[in-house]
Amino acid sequence: FRRVLFRSEPAAEQEFAAAVQSFRGGDAAAALDHAARAVEIDPGYSDARLELARLLIAARRPADAEANLRTGAAADPRHYGLATNLGALLCQSARAAEGAQWLQRAAELRPELAQAQYNLANAWKAAGQMERAVEHYRAAIARDPNYGAAYGNLGNCLAQLGHTHEASVAHERATELRRKTAIDPRQDTFRRTTEGKLRHDIEQIEYL
What we know:
The chain has helices spanning 10-24, 28-41, 46-58, 62-75, 80-92, 96-109, 114-126, 130-143, 148-160, 164-183. The chain is mainly alpha-helical. Helix 2 packs antiparallel against helix 3 (46-58), helix 5 runs parallel beside helix 7 and helix 9 (148-160) runs antiparallel to helix 10 (164-183).
């Protein structure tokens, strides 16, 4: 759960705090109930809506999560987390081209984030748009030169496009970064995002 950065309805904040406490205590069902009540009290509470969506996904209710994210993203179009998680969910539901549109919005909202470019590249890769994927893997690397997963996937896309030499160079850099990671965990850009949170598998969109 993210720290709330703005004021919402007091009752909604209390429910959100209860959701956090329940989640940390291992009671996902109670966390889901509290998050749902927070959103019911204050439909514009974007952070609570984002956490509700995550809990719905964990509860294997992706359709409800998608509807919740769409409502939130429509009401708060500048919320990076809502756009990112909606794009990720669409990609995981075999709608990568639509997911890429939401991840494009997320990348525009946070142009400094390597993670946002990487997510967008993965979406275009899943949609079969290898040239677009290459563009955004390169953008991720430009923002984070030690982004090993981006190098690895860049190499895969370049190989599919027939650029064997460039693919080899990218794969060699990915391998080099893996070796450095084994020596110095502080350089572990395979397992951690630019914001210090654990990554999912490198072929997956990175949730916040």
